[in-house]
Amino acid sequence: MVLAAMASWVHGLGIDCAMVTASLDIPPSGAPRPERPGINVAVVMERVVQPNQWEDYAFRVAEVIPDEGAYGSEPRKLFDDGRHSRWLHPGYRIELFADECKGYFLNLTSGRPVWFVVWRVDEIDASLARPQTVSLSYIECDRWMAAEERVDNVPLADELCEWLRLFTNEHFKPDGPRKQRASSFLSPEERARRVAGDWEQR
Fold first, then answer.
1. Mutual orientation of helices 158-171 and 2-13 as an angle, nearest 10°?
2. Rounded to two decimals, what is the model's pTM?
3. Separation of alpha carbons 16 and 23, rounded Å
4. Where are the domains of the chain?
5. Residue segments in the chain with a per-residue pLDDT below the cut of 50
6. Nearest-CA neighbor of 107 among 190, 179, 195?
7. Where are the beta strands (DSSP E) in the chain?
8. In 3D, which of 168, 102, 170 has the Cα closest to residue 141?
9. What is the dihedral of CA 45, 46, 48, 52, to 10 degrees?
């Protein structure tokens, strides 16, 4: 079911379906399941030159895509019109860990499951930014943000949500009330509502 649904997703992206399925650790029917499933991905960074009068460059993570190995190992420029450019950074490995399932659960039940990507501006060339690591764990992302890392998120495709959900359901059983979202993930309006609610309960 996951593979069939994935075919429609990758068709919309214009990516070879065989490349995507090869990037996922899905064993043949009847074969022993891998202890630690994972997926290989590449990160696409977008740069804007002089977005305002105070900044020379602005960066963001544009997307995370499957990487079967066809992209090589070095970053490559995909597009550059002098103001906007996109760079593809291949070679990121995301493995699922049973002890991170609570973070996966919080991501899956957030209403908008996402990839979390830590990135940094290059220390030598400030015109470049490079992804550092990629995760699917809400809790891991919260730790990064608490450490004042730059973290962007981009939507996780429905087919990969199902892949993550199957692993999480197998290894994690939530108990008790659902944990509140970390304040670092809330909008100013949501923070205000939470504070107001806390005061009303006092």
1. 150
2. 0.70
3. 11
4. 2-200
5. 1-13, 15, 17-22, 191, 195-202
6. 179
7. 38-49, 57-66, 76-80, 84-95, 114-121, 129-135, 150-155
8. 102
9. -80
